[in-house]
Amino acid sequence: MKHRIRVGVVLALGLGLACGESREEQLQRQLGYSKEKVEKTEAADEVPADPVREELRPLLEKIYSHERLPGVVDENVFVENERYPYELQAGVLAVVKVPTGVTKEAKMKAIILGTAEADAWVFRKEARRDYAQLIHKVKYGFGDDTKEQILRGYADLRLLSVFNAPDIDATIGALSGEAQKVAKEMKQEYTANKDKYWDEWMGVKMYARRAVSGDEPYRSLLRGLAKDIGTVEVKPRTWEESVAAPFAAWAKAIADNEELMIKLTGYRELRERVDFLSDTHALWVIEGSDQVPDKAKDVKPDKASGYGVLREDLGSGYNELTFVFSKKLSGGALKRAFLHSLIFRQLLTDYQLLATAGGDWAEREADGSLVKDSSIVPDEMDPLYARCGADGALDSLIAGYSGDFPVLQGVPIKEKNPEKVISVAHKCVIEGGKPRIFVPAKDDEFALEGPAPASRLALFQMLARFEKIDVNVAGMGDDAKRVEEDDAIDEAEALLKQLEAKQKEENK
What we know:
Blueprint: H1 2-19, H2 23-45, H3 51-55, H4 57-63, E1 71-75, E2 87-89, E3 95-99, H5 104-118, H6 131-142, H7 144-163, H8 168-173, H9 177-192, H10 194-202, H11 206-213, H12 218-229, H13 239-242, H14 248-255, H15 258-265, H16 270-278, E4 282-286, E5 307-315, E6 318-325, H17 331-347, H18 351-356, E7 363-364, E8 370-372, H19 382-401, H20 421-433, H21 453-463, H22 478-507
Parallel strand pairs: 1-3, 4-6
Antiparallel strand pairs: 2-3, 5-6, 7-8
């Protein structure tokens, strides 16, 4: 969620700058870009053919998707990552810059890797967007580290594809001397360690992978790898498949009740709910069962909530969550833990809750005065707000809606006094956030607001979504008419959805 907000701000700023530009300025900028492009082209064309590159030509021509191979130059370049010992001047007229003074073998490996990375920048007419646009999206959506993973990852996947091709031995046979030796070594590396390179690609945040995998050059490359060596992305897991047997009946009841699902997931849009049911990105399992994945074997259930959770960042504010429930739980206690985990999942990325509470984590002087308002809860504290908030939210939901949603019946309430729900949740956050959370001294002027006032307000606003408020519609006058009109609109939309579904079924 946080990443999405930041991306939106960046794009908005970018659009604002563009809109403020005069036509004359736009023309000058375009002319300057064209001039710069010509200068770069001329500079690239002046790069003489490198003799080491020519020794590798048969292999490089198999790697590179354009008839003009990237130029190669020896320069005093700084290499941050020893695994990729080169610097790439990317673009249509690419140049691989190799550090001066390296051995011939090291230079050959650098040229092969650099050419593989440069292949991503070759123009492809079937691409919907320019590769630079995809990389720009990754950079501002996920950060420089993920951008580098995407750029370098293409080089490894490209070589994984080339060195596992059935005709690669013929290509290597066309080489001679040290070039052939290096090619054979790299073939051995990329054929013997298929899983290693694929796992590295799968280690890139899922939503960052999705940002590039649906378009060229990644689309064709990934499809080819799936066909040739059987690599596949993680298949979507439905809501029904995500829950262990003890939760199945409750999960079905939730899926069948749109209003309850909205309460528990926060997904008000139909599209969001459909996405959740078809690709859940979470797993609910019982401690010690064979359904617990290896990565979550060490997760220990929390006594207060009844479960432990493994959180993996997918990017763009999304998480892959594995909930491991205590094997000692059963009946209403297990159901409470299950429902609690759903609200925990929702609040973990509740930007409004976390942003409103941010003032309690701002930098302050010794006297409590603000130095810098961070306006956001630290990332590592997100689970604290999710856990404490879910306690109060679930109690409010059970108290108000047990008569409406049968699945809530028989679930124990921790705090039966609705007036104390907010105080209990607030105290939970304060205790879990000490000593960093803002708690003024008793004699401090800020003590009038009480400890962590921003968190209290945030929890108060959040809990309102889970409380049942009885409204006398008959006494609302004109407002009652609007309510009736809204109901009519909802009925019309529901009918429209049914008709669309019927048409799709008939067109199959």
